[in-house]
Specification:
The protein has 456 residues and is mostly helical. Among the domains are: 229-332, Tetratricopeptide repeat domain (Serine Threonine Protein Phosphatase 5, Tetratricopeptide repeat), CATH 1.25.40; 361-455, Tetratricopeptide repeat domain (Serine Threonine Protein Phosphatase 5, Tetratricopeptide repeat), CATH 1.25.40.10. Helices cover 76% and strands 0% of the residues. It is built from 25 helices and no strands. It has helices spanning 17-32, 36-49, 54-67, 70-78, 83-97, 105-120, 124-134, 142-154, 158-171, 176-187, 193-205, 211-228, 232-245, 249-258, 264-280, 284-297, 302-314, 318-330, 336-348, 352-365, 370-379, 384-394, 399-412, 415-428, 433-455. Helix 7 (124-134) packs antiparallel against helix 8 (142-154) and helix 14 (249-258) runs antiparallel to helix 15. The longest helix has 23 residues, at 433-455. It is globular, with a radius of gyration of 24 Å.
Length: 456
């Protein structure tokens, strides 16, 4: 993909969390406004400026991949210093999202411009013309075929979209992005049940450890269910779930509320998801109202049971919560979340033996459970550092992992690394009180070390 040259001014700026977020937003804005070269150059510079902060480099690698700047994604991954934290992201992203065809720098820029035109500017026709005129050897270029498929899908030319995505998949059978697009293209046809089959086969066969990618797969399944479902109220349920998984809770609630009718058995399913959203928003009063309605008509819905357990936990009624979580863990085959909450509740009831046993059982069944790694780390000093790193390696946006990594570094006297981990936590949620608590501990520890050094 060509060599990236570091300009002399690169690597001279150290960004705090707010500055980094602002710089990344500016890059995204330039990209969506088709200022591709400026977006590329700014992202290149931000990578060099972010050396020493592995979390920032992971975010930049993921963003570069999403924009089609694959050479910059490689660059960001290459600058990571603690590969234990970044290895899962790097391996999963390169295997499941990188094109097989080796793109030149000029091709990367041209195809990025085409992607911006298609995805953000409703200019699919122009993008297709540019790809065909600027890109040579299209027959062997899997990413170019993917973008042609995306362009034709946006133009509602599903026959051409289907043709080009099949070519892309034939050229690169591992690429998850291509299979996600294929499922969406097929879901647009009148006879679209095959789309859900594509999703289920892809999700079953694709080995994914990186949580953001796993969540993307789950949200795509809900979107395809929405496209293929015939009953309007169920379509709304799946579309609401899709937006919930995409963290657009306002839109999810609006869709679900508009689907409420006088049919209580149908409403129970809608209320169950609404209860999860209200809890995610921290509105336990509204969650309690809709969860109670859902539970009245369906006592075995997993989302309802989880919400009832969460509401009981919020009110410190742990034995009552235990009842709901147990039932939830028995109500579906993939019950990792319910089992995690069950283990948490046993811990709150001072039954640490059962709690630890459950966490280890969860990891045997699901080695991508970052919360299980995290909770074992808190109770097993021998595994603490490795398992905390594992938790943020699987899900780098898991704030609890970064907070406790900073705590460990403060205890060990590694204050520079403690500060970086705390900055990561601040980037995720600047309102989390634990950031300010450990920031004060960090400053206090620094003063103690300074006094010791002065006394020598």
């Amino acid at each position: 993909m060509g060599e990236i040259v570091q300009k002399t001014q690169y690597g001279k700026v150290q960004y705090d969390a707010k500055e980094f977020k602002s710089a990344l937003d500016a890059i995204n804005n330039k990209f969506t406004n088709i200022n591709i070269s400026a977006s590329y150059d700014d992202l290149n510079r931000l990578i060099f400026d972010s050396e020493g902060n592995d979390y920032h480099l992971m975010l930049l690698a993921d963003r570069a991949t999403a924009l089609g700047f694959y050479d910059l994604a490689n660059l960001a991954f290459s600058k990571v210093t603690d590969y234990e934290i970044a290895s899962i992201d790097a391996e999963n992203t390169k295997r499941l999202f990188f094109p097989k065809y080796k793109l030149s720098r000029e091709e990367i820029i041209a195809l990025a411009e085409a992607y911006s035109n298609i995805e953000y500017n409703d200019r699919g026709n122009i993008a297709i013309e540019e790809i065909n005129s600027k890109i040579s050897n299209i027959a062997n270029n899997d990413y170019a075929n993917y973008l042609l498929a995306l362009g034709y899908m946006k133009l509602n030319d599903l026959d051409n979209a289907k043709k080009y995505i099949q070519t892309a998949i034939t050229l690169n059978t591992q690429n998850l992005n291509y299979k996600i697009l294929q499922s969406r293209i097929v879901s647009g046809f009148k006879k679209n049940k095959k789309a859900l089959k594509i999703v289920k086969e892809t999700n079953k066969k694709t080995d994914v450890t990186y949580y953001p990618i796993k969540r993307q797969m789950i949200s795509n399944e809900e979107f395809v269910k929405y496209r293929t479902e015939k009953q309007p109220w169920l379509k709304d349920y799946h579309l609401g779930y899709y937006y919930y998984l995409r963290d657009d809770n306002t839109k999810a609630l609006r869709i679900l509320q508009s689907a409420i009718t006088k049919n209580n058995s149908r409403n129970a399913l809608l209320y169950s998801l609404m209860s999860r959203i209200y809890i995610k928003n921290g509105d336990y009063d509204k969650a309690n109202i809709v969860a109670a309605k859902a539970y009245k008509y369906n006592v075995s819905n997993v989302d309802t049971l989880l919400s009832m357990g969460d509401i009981a936990t919020e009110n410190n009624k742990y034995k009552q919560a235990l009842k709901y979580y147990k039932k939830a863990s028995q109500s579906c085959s993939n019950a990792t979340e319910a089992k995690l909450k069950l283990a948490d509740t046993y811990s709150k009831l001072n039954n640490s033996k059962t709690s630890k046993s459950l966490y280890r059982q969860i990891l045997k069944e699901d080695n991508t459970s970052y919360k299980a790694y995290y909770n074992i780390a808190l109770t097993d000093p021998s595994a603490e550092l490795n398992y905390l790193k594992k938790s943020v390696a699987i899900n780098p946006n898991f704030i609890d992992g970064w907070i406790d990594l900073s705590r460990v570094m403060i205890e060990n006297g590694n204050l520079d690394l403690a500060k970086k981990y705390l900055d990561n936590a601040y980037y995720i949620d600047g309102n989390d009180f634990r950031y300010y608590y450990y920031q004060s501990l960090l400053l206090k520890k620094a003063e103690e070390l300074n006094k010791l050094n002065m006394a020598k």
